[in-house]
Structures are given as C-alpha cells and as structure tokens.
Amino acid sequence: MTQPHDETCDLLELYMLGGLDEAEALRFEAHLSSCESCQEQRLALADIVGLLPATAEPQPVPEGMKKRILANVLAEAVPAGSEAKTPPTASPSESQPSIQPSIQPAPKPATPASGASILQTTTRRTPAYMKLVTAGLAAALIALALYAAQLRGQVGDLRGELAEAGSAPVQELKVNQAVKLNPAAADIVATGLATIVIDKNGTHLLVQAEQLPKLQGNEAYQVWLIKGQEKFSAGTFLSDQGTGAIYYTLKNGGYDTVAITLEPDAFGDQPRGKIVLAAALDA
C-alpha cells in the first residue's frame, strides 16, 4: 500500500546537502525515522552526495602570494617614525652658492596589489564559485532523484499490469474447421491450409500456402470465399520465396469453397486469373 505524500519528504535533498538549519534538521530526522520512502531515497542519494566534495577543483595559491603577504606584514610591523634620523651636517660647499643641474625624481613604479588584498579577493571569489558549483550539483542531484522516483513509479505500474495480465483468464480460441488446399492442376506443386477459428471477436479465416509459383511484375495472389455462384474477396497477398499467408475476419457464413487465384494485379473484385489452390468448406 502506497503511503500518502508528506511535504516533509521534499526536504530530503536539502537535508542531504546540509541546507537545513539545526531545528529543521532535527524535525526532518524525526520524520526520517518513521518514513520508509525517505529512508530508501536517502540510501540511493548517499553515494551521489558523497561525491560532491570531490567535484570542486582545488584553487592553487597564486605564485609569490606568500612572499608578498609576509613582506606586507613585516612592513606594517615597523612603527611609524621609528626610522633613525641623522642630523644634517653642513658641508664646506654649502657656504658658497653653486649651480647644479636640475634633476627630476624618477617616477615611482606602480605599487603591486598587496598580498592581503589579493588574499581577500581570492577569499571573496572562492565561496561564490563554490556556491555556484554546489547549486549546480544540487540541481543535478534533485533531477536524478525525481527521475529515479519516476522510474520507480513506471516499474510499479508495469508490475501491476503484469499481475493483472497473469490473473486474467486465457482468451478462448476454438478451431471450427481446417481443410487442406489442393492444387487445381497437375503441374502445380503448391500446397496450403485453410483454417477457420472462432473467438470472442468473431469468426476468422487463416490461409497459408507454400511452394507457390513465382510472381511476375504486378501479379498477386488473391483468396476467394465462394457461396454457390457468388465469389467474395478475402484479400490479396504477395509470396516470399513461394510462401504466403492471409488473415481475414468473416462477415458472413455459409461459404462452400475457399480458393487462391493468381491475379494480374491486386485490385480485382472478381477472379480474373487461374485457380492455384482450392478446397471445399463445411457450410
């Protein structure tokens, strides 16, 4: 008997991924202890969830980051104004004016980003990347869970249909009569069998023949049911290596003869070719 659906079951994927807070996790664990469906799905998803950490690629530390961070830390550790100041010493040349060439200070090279800022940027990017990866894997996990549930439902339906088919009574099929079809001429080696069967849907004629002459062009074999002087077509067929068959549901009864003719095409409503096989029927 199928258990009624509990909305708490929908929290299974979030529980497996650690997406519930402590109170929600406790409530779900209480539900899990009594829900067989969630217990089965949890076992099915456990292996997939266990692979999630392995799917995140490790992010290498940028080259030189460690040195830059240590250099920045050591620079900040020196207190401001602690540099030793050397008192200016007047040189003999200071007393006399002199013309010196104008020298412009060289421009300072651009200061590279400190190790701390790079570390902060990397730290900010890494959680965002991990969130995207985790969200994608969670979506795939949920899709797999839904697909597995759908497959379980289909398997259950098939089992039910098989059980019903096995318990259903076998359809009764009765053979009314079977007659051997005989060649209509001495030079014909073909043989055949006409069988009339009855089931709950009606009365049916099954005609089988072998060693039939090879067809040429548009030729076809046609089966006829004869009642007195009236001839009724039961259909046409093409032979394959001299073998052919046809199945026809009888609309009326009382036929006295069944025959197979070789026709120039498959579109005649009355016999035009020669009879190949024929047999009398019990009216």
Automatic annotation (TrEMBL):
Stretches that traverse the bilayer: 128-149
GO BP annotation list: regulation of translation
Subcellular location: Cell membrane; Membrane
Domain (Putative zinc-finger) ranges: 7-39
One GO location term (cellular component): plasma membrane
InterPro entries in alphabetical order: Anti-sigma-K/W_factor, Anti_sigma_zinc_sf, RskA_C, Znf_put
Keyword Transmembrane helix: yes
Residue ranges constituting the Anti-sigma K factor RskA C-terminal domain according to the UniProt record: 136-266
Membrane topology per record: Single-pass membrane protein
Identification of the protein by name: Anti-sigma-W factor RsiW
Organism: Cohnella ginsengisoli
